[in-house]
Specification:
alpha/beta; Rossmann fold; binds NADPH dihydro-nicotinamide-adenine-dinucleotide phosphate; binds the ligand CCCCCC(=O)/C=C/[C@H]1[C@H](O)CC(=O)[C@@H]1CCCCCCC(=O)O; EC 1.3.1.48; 15-oxoprostaglandin 13-reductase [NAD(P)+] activity; cytoplasm; lipid metabolism; GroES-like_sf
Length: 382
């Protein structure tokens, strides 16, 4: 009886497994034919005073329209970017006139790269590689052609995700921040400090500061591993882990002649300490204030009166700065950055998370320091 039962059981298991395989095969064919896609939607808002979590997003299936109309392009997503400014887009009111809030239950969007599958717009043809600042968080999408820009993969030796990092918005931010707001002068012997130094913008800003002429570049980041990479791989002279305690003392040891240029990605306590060690007539590049993004404060956030006084008394410049303001220089900037990357003068680090279903986790991780270099989400293989 037992043997008979086992034989029957084995037979049923095999049959069922076969049926399952057939179903999986049929389903993936149907997914393509019927235009079934996955999309990551904003499921809940974290609230202005809380940390975002992966569960604020959920991934669901949807179907794409059958065909495209004039002006539209059908794309397959390769890479998506998660960026700190997206924390503001999770709020009902972003607090920034250039940022629209994401809508609950709708696919989020942001920087993305993909391949054209079908086009009824301009000169795009199937096979082109394209990017957009407003790429829907979907495996495939039908978008207006006017939101897309054509990419030139040869600029980055085929490493397409660099267009979301070193040769994209973060790279341009680092480049224009240093060039437009840093007052870096070759031969002046300036010391530059970068906070958020192991991140997308910070890791490039320090290297660009050096290329532009700073004689000493010091990074601040949130782990010993990051600090070690900054010095051994990215050419920083020194790095301090701000979570290791005694930042003021350690920073002073790294910057014995004081700080001339401060590329500020984080704000808060870290920046108060750096600003207290800045020299007369020095410069803050006000790139971002990520330490304050989970608080209900305006941008840029208010400073403690001691820091305000230090800025005033030492005549330190600290203007607002947005990479979007330099659109007329973007093309030249991309050429400069890509040339430095190809020449090996700009070292690039990335943290790649696989799968659209993990995009919420990737965003949460980046906001808490889980990334080294640019945080990328790989949605489908090239
Ligand atoms: N002005 C502009 O036009 C632009 C500004 N930005 C700004 O630049 C900054 C960096 O962005 P990006 O390079 O994309 O992101 P990153 O790749 O640097 O990732 C964010 C990093 O912030 C750090 N961080 C998080 N919380 C804190 C905290 N409380 N204190 C200190 N550090 C913290 C983490 O590193 P760690 O482990 O070191 O804590 C984390 O890895 C952001 O403020 C962003 O808003 C970005 C693009 C354009
Ligand atoms: C209020 C927080 C500001 C944080 C600073 C910051 O990270 C700014 C980032 C922008 C940068 O200037 C270039 C960008 O791509 C970021 C904003 C992107 C705007 C996309 C617009 C999408 C929309 O229509 O809402």
């Amino acid at each position: 009886m037992t043997i008979l039962w086992k034989v029957l059981n084995n037979y049923l298991e095999k049959e069922l497994f076969g049926l399952f395989l057939k179903w999986a095969e049929w389903r993936s064919a149907a997914v393509v034919v019927m235009g079934i896609i996955q999309r990551a939607v904003l499921h809940s808002r974290p609230g202005k005073n809380s940390e975002p979590v992966a569960e604020n997003f959920c991934v669901e299936e949807a179907s794409l329209a059958d065909g495209i109309t004039d002006g539209q392009v059908k794309v397959r997503t390769l890479y998506l970017s998660v960026d700190p400014y997206m924390r503001c887009r999770m709020n009902e009111d972003t607090g920034a006139d250039y940022l629209l809030p994401w809508k609950l239950g709708e696919a989020a969007d942001g920087g993305g790269i993909g391949v054209v599958e079908e086009s009824k717009y301009g000169s795009f043809t199937a096979g082109d590689t394209v990017c957009s600042f407003n790429w829907p968080w979907q495996t495939r999408a039908i978008v207006e052609g006017k939101i897309l820009q054509k990419l030139h993969p040869e600029l980055v030796g085929g490493h397409l995700s660099y267009f979301l990092g070193a040769v994209g918005m973060p790279g341009l931010t680092a480049l224009f921040g240093v060039k437009e707001k840093g007052h870096v002068t070759l031969g002046a012997g300036q010391t530059m400090v970068v906070s958020g130094a192991a991140g997308a913008c910070g890791s490039l800003a320090g290297q660009i500061g050096r290329l532009e002429g700073c004689s000493r570049v010091v990074g601040i980041s949130g782990s010993d591993e990051k600090c070690s990479i900054l010095v051994s791989e990215l050419g920083f002279d020194a790095a301090v882990n701000y979570k290791g305690g005694n930042l003021a003392q350690k920073l002073h040891e790294c910057c014995p002649a004081g700080v001339d240029v401060y590329f500020d990605n984080v704000g808060g306590d870290v920046s108060d300490i750096v600003i207290s060690q800045m020299n007369q007539n020095s410069h803050v590049i006000l790139c971002g204030q990520i330490s304050q993004y989970n608080k209900d404060v305006p941008y840029p956030p208010p400073l403690p009166s001691r820091t305000e006084a230090a800025l005033r008394d030492k005549n330190i410049t600290r203007d607002r700065f947005l990479v979007l303001w330099y659109a007329d220089k973007h093309e030249a900037g991309i050429l400069q950055l890509s040339q430095w990357v190809r020449e090996g003068k700009l070292k690039v680090r990335e943290t790649v998370t696989k799968g659209l279903e993990n995009i919420g986790a990737a965003f949460q991780s980046m906001m808490k320091g889980g990334n080294i270099g640019k945080q990328i989400v790989l949605v489908s293989e090239e």
